[in-house]
Amino acid sequence: MTTKEIPRPEWNSFFDAFSRQHEGWLATLEVFAPDLGAQEEARELPLEGVSIASGNNAPAAIAINLGKDPKDHVTHTVTEPEHVWLEQTPEGANAALEIESANETKTLLRFRSALPSEMVDGVVAD
Question: I need a labelling partner for 54 at 20 to 30 A (CA). Which of 37, 60, 78, 100 fits?
Fold first, then answer.
């Protein structure tokens, strides 16, 4: 796997394109906090999107939305994000997104199957 950091000025456009490309892909969301260890927040739910979430006088945050059904819906907010990395397979398929916060908490969004986007265009989980 290769990992590349996404520069902060590109986050908005990157998350827009990433969300469009991976909408409906089954993903697992894990959080690794220095004080709590590893916590799984969602398992194999369809990705709805990733976006910058900031309000008036609030620090920037990143929102990750999973699940189409209201009963399964999960919104995870990463506060004070410092770094965003994209993990790719040797074939260039996106496998995971990792976000690190100022407090060193890491959020990992892993896809169930890492396939090149051209292989799954138009295929969305029901």
Answer: 37
The answer for residues whose C-beta is within 8 angstroms of residue 4's C-beta and 6 or more apart is: 85, 86, 88
Residue 117, token pair as written in the block: 């986007």
32-49 core/surface letters (b: 16 or more CB in 10 A; e: else): eeeeeeeeebbeebbbbe
Do the domain assignments include residue 51? yes
Q: In this structure, is residue 41 part of a structural domain? A: yes
Q: What is the pLDDT of residues 30-52, one digit of tens each?
A: 999 988 889 999 999 999 999 99
Of the chain, the percentage scoring pLDDT greater than 70 comes to: 85
Phi, psi of 33 (to 5 degrees): -105, 140
- What is the per-residue pLDDT for 40? 92
* Residue 107 lies inside a defined structural domain of this protein: yes
120 exposure class (CB count in 10 Å sphere: 0-12, 13-18, 19+): middle
Does residue 90 lie in a domain region?
Answer: yes
Whole domain around residue 57: which residue ranges?
2-113
Q: How many domains does the chain have?
A: 1
pTM of the predicted protein model: 0.84
